[in-house]
Specification:
This protein is mainly beta. About 0% of the residues lie in helices and about 50% in strands. It contains no helices and 15 strands. The strands form four sheets. Strands 1-2-3-4 form a four-stranded antiparallel beta sheet, with no helix packed on it. Strands 5-6-7-8 form a four-stranded antiparallel beta sheet, with no helix packed on it. The protein has a four-stranded antiparallel beta sheet with strand order 9-10-11-12, with no helix packed on it. The termini are far apart.
């Protein structure tokens, strides 16, 4: 089964990721954990080459889910960035995998974990410039978080708890302008069944003044 698809454009074609819900495979039988796959599409939407299974973390038995994808542009190395939730049950970590413009996956890196002190789900990623930015939900506290990293995802510039309220917050999304990021999410803090809320973050990973 293939589900949870996500797509991003490099300006001429597209990168697509999805969760591969494996029912049976020869190397793991009926107990195969779900994996994330990546494929490139041309401007005519024809697939370029075959799809590729992306690497996870250290434990091959953990399930991958909720993939998100973004394109970095030339300042970030002209490559794709894929983020996904990684774990079976709680706590789950967030993993980042770089994919070259030719569709070759690099080594997986943990954005949150391993292991996470708290659970992390619903990751989102945004590229552009020399940074990668991420947002996610902590389902234990129902709060939204944001962090930005350098192009190699080896240095974190900021970690921000975007929300801080008793009602439920979740389902974040993320976009980048020239100088800042925008984070949007579903929130019940006004006593409603859920409204869309928005906040801005500087590229350095701090709240917009």
């Amino acid at each position: 089964y293939r589900r949870e698809p996500a797509i991003a454009s490099d300006g001429t074609g597209f990168g697509v990721v999805w969760r591969d819900d494996v029912v049976w495979r020869i190397d793991c039988g009926l107990d195969c954990p779900d994996r994330i796959r990546f494929a490139r599409l041309g401007s005519d939407t024809a697939r370029i080459g075959s799809s590729e299974e992306l690497p996870g973390g250290a434990s091959a038995s953990r399930t991958a889910s909720s993939p998100a994808i973004a394109w970095s542009g030339p300042e970030g190395g002209s490559r794709w960035g894929v983020a996904f939730s990684y774990g079976t049950g709680s706590p789950r970590d967030i993993v980042f995998v770089p994919v070259s413009s030719a569709g070759v996956a690099g080594a997986a890196r943990y954005i949150v974990g391993p292991p996470s002190a708290t659970d992390t789900i619903e990751p989102r990623i945004e590229g552009g410039g020399e940074l990668w930015a991420f947002s996610w939900t902590n389902p234990t506290t129902d709060e939204i978080y944001f962090a930005s990293y350098d192009r190699d995802v080896s240095t974190r510039y900021g970690l921000v708890q975007v929300t801080s309220n008793a009602p439920i917050s979740g389902q974040p999304d993320l976009a980048r302008s020239i100088t800042r990021y925008g984070v949007v999410w579903r929130d019940e803090q006004d006593g409603t069944d859920g409204d869309a809320w928005f906040d801005r973050m500087l590229c350095a990973g701090v709240p917009f003044p």
